[in-house]
Amino acid sequence: MTTAKICGLSTPETVAAALTGGASHVGFVFFPPSPRHLSFDRARTLAEPVPEHVGKVGVFVDPDDSLLAEAIGAGRLDVLQLHKTPPERIAAIRARHGLDIWAAIAVRTRADLDVAARHRELADRILYDAKTPEGATLPGGMGVRFDWTLLDGYRHPLPWALSGGLDAGNVHDAIRQTRAPIVDVSSGVESAPGVKDVSRIAAFLAAVAKA
Ligand SMILES: O=C(O)c1ccccc1NCC(=O)[C@H](O)[C@H](O)COP(=O)(O)O
Predict the structure, then answer these.
(1) How many other CB atoms are found less than 10 A from the CB of residue 10?
(2) Domains along the chain?
(3) Is 114 labeled as catalytic in the residue annotation?
(4) How far is the CA of 8 from the centre of ligand 1 (A)?
């Protein structure tokens, strides 16, 4: 059965929609240039109602230790999702914080998948995310999709998740084609950048449950 992470939540109402709809993970972004960036106080409030069986994922871009420590404490994080973070830094973060690590791999071509293999001993899961355009402010959350056939026949080095450009209309096909164990969405359940929509969250989670 495929489960779902709803990423970039920033209000109690949309966290509630994710929980009601059966999300396995909720994502909190700690990256100031993002429209989904959370203060530590806001993260504390949002994490409060999340039950133990739902994973709280902190999303970071090459974070330093003080950001990690504050965010982990405020968001009571279970998982650190790391974008644009060098492998040796991932290893150090894992050793220091002892939480599950999801290494985000930016994918546009088959060659990009080679990066995933380098994380075999370093991370707990690979998040295959679409590569955002050259010069983009964000490494994710831009509704960009990659060619899912790149994953055909690929021997995944680790447990994994699929991300990038998913929405209620295409997630069924994405799951059927890739057999992803977890799907991750952000802008596909928004009405504007950073503005999550409860009905889109419900529709996405219903589509995942049906797939
Ligand atoms: O979403 C952000 O603003 C963000 C900022 C910095 C690093 C990563 C970010 N998002 C990562 C995610 O996990 C998104 O859910 C993923 O990229 C998919 O986004 P979308 O294509 O919009 O569904």
Answers:
(1) 21
(2) 3-210 (3.20.20.70)
(3) no
(4) 7
Which ligand 1 atom lies nearest to the CA of residue 184?
Answer: 15
Q: Is the CB of 90 under 6 A from ligand 1?
A: no
- 118 pLDDT exceeds 90? no
- 194 Cβ below 6 A of ligand 1: no
Which pLDDT belongs to residue 201? Answer: 98
Alpha carbons 164 and 48: distance in angstroms, whole number: 28
Residue 173 has pLDDT above 90, yes or no: yes
Active site residue 65: no
Residue 117 has pLDDT above 90, yes or no: no
Please list the helix, strand and coil fractions of the chain in percent, rounded to the nearest 5, in that order.
35, 25, 40
Residue 211's H or E segment, with its range, is: none
The pLDDT value recorded for residue 194 is 96
Mean pLDDT of the 44-49 span: 98
Q: How far is the centre of ligand 1, averaged over its atoms, from the C-alpha of 102 (Å)?
A: 13
Q: Is pLDDT above 90 for 101?
A: yes
The rounded Å distance from CA 131 to ligand 1 centre is: 11
Partners of 60 in the beta sheet? 82
Tell me the best of 37, 79, 102, 138 to mutate to test the pocket of ligand 1, counting ligand atoms within 8 Å of each CB and taking the most: 138
Structure-block tokens of residue 128: 């295959």
Helix or strand run (H / E) with residue 103: strand 100-107
Inter-CA distances, 21 with 18, 94, 171, 181, Å: 5, 31, 15, 17
Closest CA to 124 of 97, 154, 160: 160
